Amino acid sequence: MIQAVPQVPVSEVADVVRVAVAPVFLLSGIGAFLNVCASRLSRIVDRSRVIEPLLLASRGEEHDRWVAELRIVDRRMQLVNIATGMSVLSALLTCLVVILLFAASLLHSHFGTLIALLFIVSMVAIGTAFAIFLAETRLAERAVRVRSELLQHKVDPED
Question: Model's pTM, two decimal places?
Fold first, then answer.
């Protein structure tokens, strides 16, 4: 037996759309952040491609310096990947919130607690992504500061 889909008044659907707009704007912001993460990851990968041949061609202290820099680049890559994963998780949970808002309205169900919990977890995920991204940018900044200290190195003219 096929049940007919219950008719939902347009005004009720309009109310749900109004409520669902905020999470949709959130998705837009998460998408922009994912774009930043992807750009950052691309630049990190480019840097690793520059370092690898220099590492293979180096010896001694220079080799050790390139290994240390490659380790930093690898750690930065890991952090950006984690931030990206947490952002995607947040986006998926936010999509689920929007879906449940509409499902609750159409089915006249009470998903309020579930929707609230999913939204909270989504916010924790995006907050974690932001924190990890901050850690990556701090790591990158420290690595650049170390390299800038090399510019201050002076050679004794008597050598």
Answer: 0.80
